[in-house]
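Go through this chain for my students:
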Amino acid sequence: MNTFKSELNKVNAVREEVGRVIVGMENLINRLLIGVLCGGHVLVEGAPGLAKTMTIRTLSRALGISFSRIQFTPDLLPGDLIGTLVYNQGTGDFMPHLGPVFANMVLADEINRSPAKVQSALLEAMEEKQVTIGNKSYSLDEPFLVLATQNPVEQEGTYPLPEAQLDRFMFKVLIDYPTIEQEEEVLSRMAKMGSSIEVHKVLEGESILQIRKLIDTIHLHEDLNKYVVRLVDATRNPDSYGLGSLKKYIRYGVSPRASLAMIRSARAFAFLQGREYATPSDVKEISKDVMRHRIILNYKAEAEGVDAEDVISKILQEVPMS
């Protein structure tokens, strides 16, 4: 069996193991896997009770990597996240006490409930893969990724994430209520197995790093790079693509990080489909998750009920693949 097939079988085994616990949520599970395989952070938005936390925790167990959950609250301090210096009376020195961010997979639950200082501390970890405690920096072990959740319903007393931090997330994934059939299956499983289902480890952290190298070899045609650039540029210069009607709604287009995220995630998506090459359809499949949190609309868009989904859909419809 060749290397590609072997590594794909490992990832499929992870999906199957997570699927034993989680009903539905295929899109979320795939996006989380892409984040893991690309080293990209994922922001998950959905109403309470949709198993966001459970899905992420289950995935970490199946992957066999260390997991840490941090409940973001208004009184959370940066030291509660990254750690702090503790005075040792015996030696008279200050010793570092490392915080919960020192894990392979960090769940930042309800990330928008903590103030700017905490979010800034997390930002350094996300971007630099390191944290600073006192006057010393500590590297975070690979693989490292932040999976954050936020509740779109309750916005009172929250601290909206700044654009600079939102841009660090590879994806923003929206999840909705399960179908009737899926909810019936949830009830059936819980009745048979109870509230807890054992999750088996089917992958190792070292294997994740090897698969990342394999994904880097997924073939990308030069025309696919050009298509990605056109999509991104259409958010900045819609007039150039016959999308002048969108210009009045867009305050800022997406950043170059969107281009990089689309290429990386298109490769990973192709890998999950069992292909050694990426296509424009792969780009279209992941483009909304990549761009919806990066495009900044103005008050006219809000007044007229136009959201990022509408703008991106129009761009995907009008910008040619070749």
